[in-house]
From TrEMBL:
It holds the Pfam family TPR_IMB1. InterPro entries: ARM-like, ARM-type_fold, HEAT, IMB1_TNPO1-like_TPR, Importin_beta, Importin_rep_6. It is found in: Cytoplasm. It comes from the Eukaryota. This is Ran-binding protein 6 isoform X2. Keywords: Acetylation, Cytoplasm, Protein transport, Repeat, Transport.
C-alpha cells in the first residue's frame, strides 16, 4: 500500500511538472510551440486543469522547484479565461479555491507582474460570480485589497513602482461595482488612499495610474450612492477639475482622457441635477473630442512597411503599391466622447437643453461616419435624447430639430452596411417617432420609409431562400451551418427592429397609418404562414398584435389574415410564438370591440389547455403561460358575455400570482382589485374563504416588484389589505398562511401606499 501511495505521489508531481511546462509553452514566442501547447491543453479534463492552475497560482512546489513567475502569470491569465468561458458554473464550483489563491498571490511581494495578472484574473472572476457567493468573501477580500493597496502606495512613494498598483485600483473598482451598497462599510478606509494616489500621480509616466484611479473613485462613488459620497464629493470634484484643466493642454492620445470622460459620466449619475453646475467645464473638451477629424493618409507600400505597429495606424491595400491609412487611436476617444454626450443628454434633460442645437449639428453628420461603428451607434442613440431635450423648449423648436434629423435618419436605415449599427439606427428612429408624435412624418417621409421597410422584409425572405440553397450544396458542413445560423440570427434581429418601427407608428398614428401599412401587408401575412421559421411567425404575430391593440376597431378588417394563425399558434412548440399569440388574444378582448366576441370565445379553451399543460410553469414556458392567464383575465374583464365568468373565475384565481411578466402581472392585479371592490362572491368565496389566498397573491406581487408605488393599483391593493385588517380574526387567519418575507412585504406596501 505504501509503495502504491508513493508511486501515486510521484505520478502527480510528474503531471504537475508537465502542466507547468505546458503553461510556459502557451506563452512561447514560437507560433508552432504555442499551437501544439493549445491542442494538448484543450484535451486536459476540466477538473485536473483547474486544480493544476490553482496550484500554479498558489506557488505550490512541483517536485523540487516552485513554478516560474511566467508560469504563475500564465496560470492567472488562464484562470481568468476559464472564468469568462465557463461563467457562472466555474465561479459556483471553484469560488473558494480561486478567490483564496488569487488573493494570496496578490499579497506576495515577490513579483509585480504576477501580482498584476492575479488582480486581473480576480476582476474577471468576480464579474460573473453570483452576489450571494461573493458575499461569503467580501469582508476578508476587501480588507485584504486595502492592505495590499497601502503597501503598493508606499512602494509608489519610495520607488515609483506602479504596475501592480494600476491593476489593483481596477480590482477595487470592479469589487465596488459588483457588491454596490455593500461597499459602504469600507468606503472610509479606501477613499483617502485613492485620493492620495491621484494627488501623487502627476508625472508623465504615471498618467495611466492617475486615470485608472480616477475611474476607481467614480466606481466607488456610484456603488455607495450619493448620500455616502457627498462627504467627499466637493474634494473629488476639485481633483477632477484640476485634471480636466491639465487635459485641455495635453495630447489627444493621453491615456487619462478616456478615463476622465467616463468618470465625469459616473459623477453625473451620482450627483444628478447637482452635476449641472459642472457641465460647462466638461462639455467643451467633450465636443472638441467628438468633433475631431480622423487622421488619414495615402502612402506608398514602402512607407507603410517602415511604420511601426505602435504608431496606431491601420492600412488597407488599394493596389498599385498604394495603401489608405487611418490613425485609429483617436477614433476610440471620439466614440467615447460621443457616447458621453448621449449620456448627459439622457440624464440631465433640462440641464442639457442649451447644448442641443450644437450637439445635434455634430451628431447628424456622424450617422455617415464609416471609420468607426460606435461613433455611428452613439449618433443614432443621441437622436431621441436630443429630441426629448428639444421638447422642453416647446413644439416649434422640437419640429425644427426633427426636420433637421428625420431625413438623414431615414436614409441611414436604407444605407447602413453594418447590421449591429443598423439595429441601433432603427431603434432610434422608432423612439424618435414616439417623442415627436403625430404629424412628424410627411407623405414624402412615409413613402421613403415604406420603400425601405419593404426592401428589408423582401431581403429577409430572399436571404432565407439563399441559405436553404447553400444547405444543398456539396461543400455543406457543420461549420457552414454555424455561419448560416449566425446570418439567420442577424436577419431576425433586423426583423425585430422592423417590428419596433411599426409598433411606434401604430401606437402614435393609430388607424390613420393603416392605408400606408397596406403596402407591407402581404409581406407581414407571409411571416405568419405555417411554413415559416418560428421567429418569423413570432414577429409577424407581434405586428398584428400591435394593429389590434392600437388600431381597433378598424383592425377587424384584417381578421381573416390572422384569425387562424393566432389560434393555431397557441399549440406551437415554441413558447415565444405561443406568447405572441396569447398576447394577441388578450388585446382582442381588451381593445377589439364586439366584432371579436366569437374569436374570444374560441380562444378560451385553447388558452386553458396551455395553462394546464404539465410543463407550463417551467422556466422555458412560464412567460407564455402567464400571457395565457392574463389573456383569460382580459376576456373575463372586457368580454364577460362570451364566457361563463362564474365557471372560469375560480380557475383563473387559482393560477395567480404571476411572477415573470411584470406588465401582465399588473393587469391581473388590477382586475383582481375590480372584483374585490365589487364584492364578487366567486372571488371572495363562501364566508370570505378565499381572502387568505388573495392576501398571499398581494404579498407575492410586492415581493416580485410587480406593484409600483406610482401605480394607482398599489393604493387599491393596500386598501384591500387594510379592510381585511379591520376584522382581527380574519386577519390572523390570513397572516397565519404567510411566511416572514410575505408579512414584511405587506407591511411595506401599507407603509408606502
Amino acid at each position: 500500500m505504501a509503495a502504491i501511495g508513493a508511486a501515486g505521489v510521484s505520478s502527480a508531481v510528474s503531471e504537475k511538472q508537465e502542466f507547468y511546462q505546458l503553461l510556459k509553452n502557451l506563452i512561447n514566442p514560437s507560433c508552432m510551440v504555442r499551437r501544439q501547447a493549445e491542442e494538448i491543453y484543450e484535451n486536459i479534463p476540466g477538473l485536473c486543469k483547474t486544480t493544476f492552475l490553482i496550484d500554479a497560482v498558489r506557488n505550490r512546489r512541483a517536485g523540487y522547484e516552485d513554478p516560474h513567475p511566467r508560469v504563475r502569470a500564465a496560470a492567472c491569465t488562464t484562470l481568468g479565461q476559464m472564468a469568462t468561458d465557463f461563467a457562472p458554473s466555474f465561479q459556483k464550483k471553484f469560488h473558494e479555491a480561486v478567490i483564496g489563491a488569487l488573493l494570496r498571490t496578490m499579497e506576495n511581494q515577490g513579483n509585480q507582474r504576477v501580482q498584476s495578472h492575479a488582480a486581473s484574473a480576480l476582476i474577471i472572476f468576480i464579474e460573473d460570480c453570483p452576489k450571494s457567493l461573493l458575499a461569503l468573501y467580501v469582508d476578508g477580500m476587501v480588507k485584504n485589497l486595502h492592505s495590499i493597496l497601502v503597501i503598493k502606495l508606499q512602494e509608489l512613494i519610495r520607488n515609483g513602482t506602479k504596475l501592480a498598483l494600476e491593476q489593483l485600483v481596477t480590482t477595487v473598482a470592479s469589487v465596488a461595482d459588483t457588491i454596490e451598497e455593500d461597499f459602504i462599510p469600507y468606503y472610509d478606509i479606501f477613499m483617502p488612499s485613492l485620493k492620495h494616489i491621484v494627488e501623487l500621480a502627476v508625472q508623465k509616466e504615471l498618467k495611466l495610474l492617475r486615470g485608472k484611479t480616477i475611474e476607481c473613485i467614480s466606481h466607488v462613488g456610484l456603488a455607495v450612492g450619493k448620500e455616502k459620497f457627498m462627504q467627499d464629493s466637493s474634494n473629488v470634484m476639485q481633483l477632477l477639475l484640476k485634471t480636466q484643466s491639465d487635459l485641455n493642454n495635453m495630447e489627444d492620445d493621453d491615456p487619462q482622457i478616456s478615463y476622465m470622460v467616463s468618470a465625469w459620466a459616473r459623477m453625473c449619475k451620482i450627483l444628478g441635477k447637482d452635476f449641472q453646475q459642472y457641465l460647462p467645464l466638461v462639455i467643451e473638451p467633450l465636443i472638441k473630442t467628438a468633433s475631431a477629424k480622423p487622421d488619414v493618409a495615402l502612402l506608398d507600400t514602402q512607407d507603410v512597411e517602415n511604420m511601426s505597429d505602435d504608431d496606431g495606424w491601420q492600412f488597407v491595400n488599394l493596389g498599385d503599391q498604394q495603401s489608405f491609412g487611418i490613425k485609429t487611436s483617436g477614433l476610440e476617444a471620439k466614440a467615447t466622447a460621443c457616447q458621453m454626450l448621449v449620456y448627459y443628454a439622457k440624464e440631465l434633460k433640462e440641464g442639457f437643453v442649451e447644448y442641443t442645437d450644437q450637439v445635434v449639428k455634430l451628431m447628424v453628420p456622424l450617422l455617415k461616419f464609416y471609420f468607426h461603428d460606435n461613433v455611428r451607434v452613439a449618433a443614432a442613440e443621441s437622436m431621441p435624447c436630443l429630441l426629448e431635450c428639444a421638447k422642453i423648449n416647446g413644439p416649434e423648436y422640437l419640429a425644427q430639430m426633427w426636420q433637421f434629423i428625420c431625413d438623414p435618419l431615414i436614409k441611414a436605415i436604407g444605407t447602413e452596411p453594418d447590421a449591429d449599427v443598423l439595429s441601433e439606427i432603427m431603434n432610434s428612429f422608432a423612439k424618435s417617432i414616439e417623442v415627436v408624435g403625430v404629424g412628424g412624418l410627411t407623405d414624402e417621409h412615409l413613402e421613403e420609409l415604406g420603400g425601405i421597410l419593404k426592401a428589408k422584409l423582401e431581403g429577409h425572405f430572399k436571404n432565407q431562400e439563399l441559405r436553404q440553397v447553400k444547405r444543398q450544396e456539396g461543400n455543406y458542413d457543420q461549420q457552414i451551418e454555424m455561419s448560416l445560423q449566425d446570418e439567420d440570427e442577424c436577419d431576425v434581429y433586423i426583423l425585430t427592429k422592423v417590428s419596433d418601427i411599426l409598433h411606434s407608428l401604430f401606437s402614435t398614428y393609430k388607424e390613420k397609418i393603416l392605408p400606408w401599412f397596406e403596402q407591407l401587408l402581404p409581406l407581414i401575412v407571409n411571416l405568419i404562414c405555417s411554413s415559416r421559421p418560428w421567429p418569423d411567425r413570432q414577429w409577424g404575430l407581434c405586428i398584428f398584435d400591435d394593429i389590434i391593440e392600437h388600431c381597433s376597431p378598424t383592425s377587424f378588417k384584417y381578421v381573416e389574415y390572422f384569425r387562424w394563425p393566432m389560434l393555431l399558434n397557441m399549440r406551437d412548440n415554441n413558447p415565444e410564438v405561443r406568447q405572441a399569440a396569447a398576447y394577441g388574444l388578450g388585446v382582442m378582448a381588451q381593445f377589439g370591440g364586439d366584432d371579436y366576441r366569437s374569436l374570444c370565445s374560441e380562444a378560451v379553451p385553447l388558452l386553458v389547455k396551455v395553462i394546464k399543460c404539465a410543463n407550463s410553469k417551467t422556466k422555458k414556458n412560464v412567460v407564455a403561460t402567464e400571457n395565457c392567464i392574463s389573456a383569460i383575465g382580459k376576456i373575463l374583464r372586457f368580454k364577460p358575455n362570451c364566457v361563463n365568468v362564474d365557471e372560469v373565475l375560480p380557475h383563473w384565481l387559482s393560477w395567480l400570482p404571476l411572477h415573470e411578466d411584470k406588465e401582465e402581472a399588473l393587469q391581473t392585479l388590477s382586475f383582481l382589485c375590480d372584483l374585490i371592490e365589487n364584492n364578487h362572491p366567486v372571488v371572495l368565496g363562501p364566508n370570505n374563504s378565499n381572502l387568505p389566498k388573495i392576501i398571499r397573491i398581494i404579498a407575492e406581487g410586492k415581493i416580485n416588484e410587480t406593484i409600483s408605488y406610482e401605480d394607482p393599483c398599489a393604493k387599491r391593493l393596500a386598501n384591500v389589505v387594510r379592510q381585511v385588517q379591520m376584522d382581527q380574526e380574519l386577519w390572523l387567519e390570513c397572516t397565519s398562511h404567510l411566511d416572514e418575507e410575505q408579512q414584511a412585504a405587506l407591511q411595506e406596501l401599507l407603509n408606502l401606499a
